[in-house]
């Protein structure tokens, strides 16, 4: 009996040593921790930056699914405003227009031997319902500044990034700064509906034999409600999920609603949507998510216990997965998501639709 207890204690001690060793290996002081490069911060005028973002939100640079509704005049007006608001930036760069409304700005570096870095931001936003019952607490295109927030469509996605880039670059340009490595600023006009502008920029760079050293895109927002972390967290995305929209179509005979068949087109479509939702994809941690968690856990602000858990996913992976599944954003990191987003059917309340359509948007994990 004593032998068994002793063996158990030794086993427990060994396990604890492995857990702690792996945790320390992933800590801020460990050699395997990410390299920290001190950055010299530049000063921007916060009030002016907020005012600029507020003004930017007022331009209704909307991308709609129906391409015929695209309004190039709004984008032209927006770009004229950008030129007036950031004169030093636009004096320092060469500006090219791609596909009419996408802008590629090149800030030529002093060392032509270096490949350029590319910063991306998009000018367009998705539509917003301005009616009373839309759920917007402030009008979506007014750019209201209140309670320490800037309100409106695109405040985060992605005019926030666009204005941050322009503001910083304008301050640098005004100070006479010239980058060593060329910097390209690509501002797309249709990111929300497929990004043909960005694709054309990529094709243009390829045709000119330009191979970016790094491409930095919008990324996620800064979150302040991370469990166990007191400081705000800006996650750096290193991978992006795939994108797929499938359209389901149900057809029926139509006719008068007073003499319906057993199953109508809408009934059949609803069953199909429910069936797709009832078969979710597998949710599990993969290589990329594990790497992201490990890097996040190496930050100073992360407590020891959390680091212990994340540094030992071989043991606690199941617990972490269960916790991530508790929130929609956590679950989305574990696999392909399924989201029915649009339904089209019927035009009259007493007529049976001959066709019903549903759009289902998938965000694909790489393993699917
Ligand atoms: Zn975006």
From TrEMBL:
One of its GO terms (biological process) is proteolysis. The keyword Protease applies. Keywords: Hydrolase, Metal-binding, Protease, Zinc. The keyword Zinc applies. Transmembrane segments: none annotated. GO terms for molecular function: metal ion binding; peptidase activity. Belongs to the peptidase M20A family. This is Uncharacterized protein. It comes from hydrothermal vent metagenome.
């Amino acid at each position: 009996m004593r032998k068994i207890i002793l063996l158990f204690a030794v086993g427990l001690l060994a396990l604890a040593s492995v857990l702690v060793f792996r945790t320390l290996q992933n800590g801020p002081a460990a050699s395997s921790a990410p390299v920290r490069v001190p950055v010299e911060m530049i000063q921007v005028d916060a009030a002016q930056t907020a005012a600029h973002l507020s003004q930017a939100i007022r331009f209704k640079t909307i991308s709609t699914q129906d391409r015929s509704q695209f309004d190039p005049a709004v984008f032209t007006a927006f770009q004229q405003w950008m030129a007036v608001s950031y004169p030093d930036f636009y004096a320092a760069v060469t500006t090219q227009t791609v596909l009419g409304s996408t802008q590629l700005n090149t800030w030529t570096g002093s060392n032509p031997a270096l490949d350029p870095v590319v910063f991306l931001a998009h000018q367009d936003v998705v539509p917003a319902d301005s009616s009373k019952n839309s759920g917007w607490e402030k009008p979506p295109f007014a750019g209201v500044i209140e309670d320490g927030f800037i309100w409106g469509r695109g405040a985060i996605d992605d005019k926030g990034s666009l204005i941050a880039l322009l503001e910083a670059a304008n301050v640098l340009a005004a100070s006479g700064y010239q980058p060593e490595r060329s910097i390209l600023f690509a501002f797309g006009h249709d990111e929300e509906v497929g990004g043909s502008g960005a694709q054309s920029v990529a094709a243009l760079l390829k045709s000119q034999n330009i191979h970016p050293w790094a491409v930095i895109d919008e990324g996620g927002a800064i979150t302040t409600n991370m469990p166990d972390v007191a400081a705000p967290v800006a996650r750096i995305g290193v991978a992006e999920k795939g994108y797929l929209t499938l359209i389901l179509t149900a057809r029926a005979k139509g006719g008068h609603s007073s003499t319906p068949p057993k199953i109508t087109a809408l009934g059949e479509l609803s069953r199909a949507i429910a069936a797709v939702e009832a078969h979710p994809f597998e949710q599990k941690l993969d290589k990329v998510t594990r790497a992201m968690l490990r890097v996040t856990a190496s930050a100073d602000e992360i407590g020891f216990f959390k680091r212990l858990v994340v540094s030992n996913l071989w043991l606690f992976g199941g617990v972490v997965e269960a916790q991530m599944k508790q929130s929609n954003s956590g679950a989305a990191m574990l696999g392909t998501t399924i989201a029915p987003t649009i339904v089209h059917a019927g035009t009259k309340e007493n007529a049976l639709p001959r066709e019903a359509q549903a759009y289902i948007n998938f965000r694909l994990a790489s393993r699917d």
